[in-house]
What does this fold into?
Amino acid sequence: MAPVIRFLEEHSDELINYWFSTYYVNSKEYQERKYIPGYLDAQYSEAKRLFVQSLKKSSTSDVISSVRNIGEDRHDMNVDIEDVLINHFDFYTALMEFVTIHHDKKNLDCSAKEIFTTLLELRRIETSSTLELYKGYTLEPSSTNF
It folds into this structure.
């Protein structure tokens, strides 16, 4: 798992750009806010901070709190819950595509087992973070452990 995580840490900007240009630009949230000064930079920074934080300490209360705060923020911004969840799922889809693309191009040198193990761990993080995002959006108490 370590080679994949190390690759993702080293290429986090490229991954965020991939997600942003492939998925996020098609979201309702993006369409409604793309002309707000500073919004795109803030969105990019938020995505990068949370992603890097998740890779380094996926089981800490910092990550849980950050994801819940994003849910609360999106609720306060009147972003539809469906769009919030789709954006979240799209990020993890982009992440898995990114890993697969780079493995196929031989930019990521690791075994298939390392890829599968890492993707399963990332899927676990996706599931837990989705629950926290939803709880933040609906202001439910936290009970998920990453």
Residues 19 and 128 are 20 Å apart (CA to CA). The chain is about 75% helix and 0% strand. The chain has a mean pLDDT of 88. The first helix runs from residue 2 to 10.
